[in-house]
Amino acid sequence: MKADRSKNLLFGSIVLLWSGFVAFAQTVSTPVVGFLKNSLPAGQMSMVSFPLLNYPVVSSVLTSKSGNVLNCAGASFATQTITQKNYANEPLYYVEIKSGSQSGLMLDVLSATTTSITVADASSLTGNESFAVRKYLTLADVFGAANQAGLKSGPSQGDADIVFLVVGGNWKQFFYYDDQVGFDAVQWLELGSGSSADASSARIDPDQGILVQRRAGGTTVGTLVTGTVKDSPANIPMFNGMQIVTNPWPTSMTLEQLGLRTGNSSTGLQQGDSVGTSDVVYRIEGGNWVQYYIYDDQVGFDPIQWVKLGGGSSDQGSTLINPGEAILVQRKASNSFAWAPAKNF
Question: CA-based, 20 to 30 A from 331: which of 39, 171, 274, 340?
Fold first, then answer.
């Protein structure tokens, strides 16, 4: 199964890069488009991500801002579209800043008029940035509103495959509910929410990955997501606690290339002399959880480098994070920082 997954990722990457060469030969403003396919083997946990964005519904330039209201006199916004909410009353559209010092920043669309957008916090913007408005990916986009991907359904979480999202440091669990007797609606549900609302519109943020727990006895299923390659810098908030994050680019990157090792916990992961004192990066390798951290003996005798728990003292900085792979980061330092992994293509 591992070889099959690698082939799918490689093929997706080749198509993305090939599309990029064609697009840029025509015009530098044409988005690079492609697809990415991930496999989810039965009986295993998998962490996957989707480093492709929905095509923008609006692309323009701000003319001014007033508080958290972003104005753009030359644009006409489809307000009924970009102000949609999901099942949990969360915004389904976001503003992606594409120029200036905050390029890559993503802000939820709270409300809109035909020429302005209100976001939660525009304090870091000047009011003359270029921007795009995009729709978040959802469970329906990834797995199908009717579970077309073929995850195991069931009347309870103990019978079905589970999809985990980490939202604001909190774990949320989803499964495709089927009471198997036909009394209730067959649909996506959020476990423990106390709601019977269809959760197929649960959103997956562009910098977020997901954890999928497959039950044994099934077959390998897959996800296929199409979209555009991000053309603004990555700007990913890293905070205290757990979060599932993505390699935001459609090419493989090493742990070292991700730029999480800066030597300063204000701008990168916390280093330490053991897994207990360091921030930890978790991967799933062959169905097993593996922990990586930045080893620093704090006295200068040993090299500061990525190591693997139980893997000796060898440098693990060349460990590849593939396109479509997600990693779980346990941030122990109390402060937040903006992670900006650079493109390597």
Answer: 39
